């Protein structure tokens, strides 16, 4: 089967030859192709995947344009002191945040254990185990892994309660509450999230992706046009053999029909009570009206509720509870549940449901509350129900208090406001619902983190200790931090030293211990933390601030550039801007603050003393002023030189002048995806959708939102609907991307080519045309049409789409023009600000020594890229240095548990005859992607050998 050439066509960034930095860059069916680099190891080193990496995200980072002249009119009354209300940053005020998620010392073994747990559990337990997987994946940098596990949990859910919570959570992950014109109960068309489908109990994992029934008439089994008026005389005096008297009214009934409603009625009417011999029974003191009793009589004959008014249905529900009429109660429960459509209905009916223990009615009300999150968190009645112990007990009586429910609620609260009382109370309820070990670890650890943020250190210590006792080793750093805050610094140091000596060292251990030591020992711990886990930002920040205090500003910025080059975060951008202001380099400072505000629009600078927008106002007059035309020129310049942060800053500037420009919001989302800031990218996409001025444009953005949250077919449908309204570049581009997100056969490739050509015929700006040409060239390469591919890449380069050098190099390489390929990549290295991928790619077009040098540079610039580790490991295996090869892969796996790395290490272990290690790594890899065929094959072979040895 031919390899999929687009893992993400929206991004310009592609990489041939198993260089994906994301797990999802792998071919989903597990097939592999020969890789570059010339290293082998009995075929193991060559089994790298040929795949493109997120083409949507492809811009690199352009060099900052320094050609602008200084502004001719400066505001002279703004001093550095005004811009820096807190002075220079202080190392004593820096400390790393404790992650509010599960973390493990041996993450690979945790994944392996979880895979076996999923494989061995019964089908009715799978949803709970997938929820555990969600909790573990929550700590990973890729939110798609979490959402995939969440979908699996929903797929295997059995009861209505689990279905409504999981479906609501999936909807929340798309944050559809931010889409203008949508309502909480809207359905996107599949059973997976359909509010009506969630109200049906039963295990049916194959149906979750089927189209739902929302398009059908809402009239159902209860809307049968039977009314009290039409039927009140249907039981004639001749048919009826007894009456219920309520006040002066008599309701004629058939004794047998009423007795059939429940055992208490049967005992009343046919048992030893005096009523069994009476024709008229006084029923006035049983809390039901004459109309209600007539409805009971109708139900006793028809087993239907008809079109009774709501008060009558509520009376029937109450009577059914008192007299144990299960069939009537179920009918009332389901009918009332079908009436709940909005927040107002839910707030009214939830009390009846709780009082009468109506499972479906409460479920329907809960579903509205959950699908209205986070807005419903600000409703006092809703929060009283969820937050209080009494509310939890009421929900428990109806079967609706669960760890799952409070996990969703507490995570939403943590995102909204970590320190508020609501968050604390929800986490306390989460702890009360926790049963399994991992559930207790999570609830107690998160309570510890929240209490630490609230500066309630004694409570924080108690919760962290409880989490540690439940088995969560990572909570040890919370124990140490709480003791440190209470003045016990040496005790904290001893705790961390013991942790380092008792377990295999991990970067966060050394990072934490550095807080409790000084001088050279502190710096040694920080450097060790970076060596073990280069993705930890605190060591870079600390070293940078230390350099600032030594008045080595340039070196401080260089230190921050090391991590910003591969992992962009608001805190690091803030610190770099802070230093730039101290250097009076206002252009760079403003660039970083604008980029920061794109990631977090509400960010408070300088220890929370100044809003980022205010600092933009202060800095703006001190830099060169641009009109909108200047901004477009600057954007082209930065986009072509692959300067994503600079591009983000320009787009932020343009949006300040034109906040309703959906195209700019969309461009912003592409840049954020390139920077792996997926939450911020989704927010920009939602804003683009809300700002759309036409239906066809809105549909395209809705399609991207659906695609990015795992709904490929729905995204395709949006693209097709948009094209039916108006042919546009973006609609064709979306459709081509969504169709190409699988292994393309020749026929599919031809269709994708046609779609991209249609896109190029539609009006668009040069930036997007460059992306389309680049993608089209990639398709031509896969179809072995190298000359056509080269034309596409050359045309892309003519409009300054710099990434096309990479595609052109690939064409030259396939034509055996190795030197030309090398030269193309050299051009890309010279032009691109972010050129780690260019060094990595150029390594394929040179000899082994030069390749090693390029790959070392790639790792230095971006340690998250996995190909260099795999190449070096394969070379070491070729040289029969097995231990060194394993160590090379293990070094990366510690901070990036990647499917490709785990599969290759498993293969190395397999070639060494270490079946136990092979099985462990295969299980960990399959936990990340259970459908990877190569790993499955290797796993089964290792299991068979172990089984044969045991026999």
UniProtKB/TrEMBL annotation:
BP terms from Gene Ontology: negative regulation of ethylene-activated signaling pathway
Gene3D superfamilies from the UniProt entry: Potassium Channel Kv1.1, Chain A, Tetratricopeptide repeat domain
Keyword Coiled coil: yes
UniProt TPR repeat ranges: 770-803
Xref: Pfam families: TPR_8
Keyword Disulfide bond recorded: no
UniProt pathway: Protein modification; protein ubiquitination
Bilayer-crossing regions: none
Coiled-coil stretches: 815-842
UniProt keyword list: Coiled coil, TPR repeat
PANTHER family attached to this UniProt entry: ETHYLENE-OVERPRODUCTION PROTEIN 1, ETO1-RELATED
Name of the protein in question: BTB domain-containing protein
Species, as recorded: Manihot esculenta (Cassava)
Organism lineage: Eukaryota, Viridiplantae, Streptophyta, Embryophyta, Tracheophyta
